[in-house]
Specification:
The structure is a single chain. By secondary structure, the protein is mainly beta. It has a single domain (4-232), classed as Metallo-beta-lactamase, Chain A (4-Layer Sandwich). Helices cover 14% and strands 37% of the residues. The protein is globular and about 45 Å long. The model is unreliable at 1-13 (pLDDT under 50).
Length: 238
């Protein structure tokens, strides 16, 4: 079902790793690793930006040099996911902005999508908001249950799971038929490498991008998952 390719692509002020995949009807979905939790996705001429942030740890992303967004998705209001200035730069005529309630409140606009809700953006594009939260004692304050979103984006039947800031929560057992998964891995805010492996084995995505990494070394987890038949692609999502 999938044809995959990888290359570096000039985009903005820097070069971003680029991964392209083909849907069942031959359309192309391309992901650009902008950094940390910021993803640019292009599908059938439509521009998606997920958690666009302009500066993380000194790494800057020049959104002004990129195409305007058709769709912007924001998981939650933390500074490494929600950047009002980046959103303003990417907003164009007709841009649809989808966020959790706290982000809509802070930004003063956009569409609230709460856990369990979904929206059809086009005939072949749907977005579902799914839970994302911490479960470890002492860490629940970072991402309390019910506040933040992960997203399942379906384009032409091709299913992309962007988990947001979360640990391995029970609701993930309901996430099925994932082609590409973006799973976070850095404590104390998201998953440990052990949790990453456990979730990936459960989800069985065709391709896994560990992201939101900070300084976490996921090489051991990647090796374990490759042996399970899951294609792991480690990009610059520090």
């Amino acid at each position: 079902m999938l044809a995959t390719a990888w290359m570096l692509s000039a985009c903005g002020q820097g070069s971003y790793e680029k991964d392209a995949f083909r849907t069942k009807n031959g359309k192309v979905v391309t992901f650009y690793a902008l950094g940390h939790s910021s993803i640019r996705m292009v599908y059938d001429g439509k521009e998606f930006y997920i958690d666009p942030v302009g500066n993380i740890g000194g790494k800057k992303v020049d959104y002004a040099s990129m195409p305007k967004a058709d769709y912007i998705l924001v998981t939650h209001e933390h500074f490494d996911h929600y950047d009002a200035e980046a959103i303003k730069v990417l907003m164009g005529e007709g841009t649809q902005l989808i966020m959790n309630g706290k982000c809509v409140e802070k930004y003063g606009g956009g569409r609230v999508l709460a856990n369990g809700e979904s929206v059809e953006l086009a005939e072949d594009i749907t977005v579902e908001a799914v839970p994302a939260y911490n479960t470890t004692n002492g860490h629940r304050k970072f991402h309390p249950q019910g506040r933040d979103n992960g997203y399942i984006i379906t384009v032409d039947g091709y299913r992309i799971y962007v988990a947001g800031d979360t640990e391995d929560i029970p609701e993930m057992e309901k996430v099925k038929d994932i082609d590409v998964a973006f799973l976070p891995c850095n404590q104390p805010y998201t998953m440990t490498p052990e949790q990453l492996v456990r979730v990936a084995k459960m989800l069985q995505p065709k391709v896994l991008f560990p992201y939101h990494l900070g300084q976490t070394d996921v090489s051991g987890a990647a090796e374990k998952l490759e042996k399970e038949g899951i294609c792991v692609r480690v990009r610059h999502y520090e």
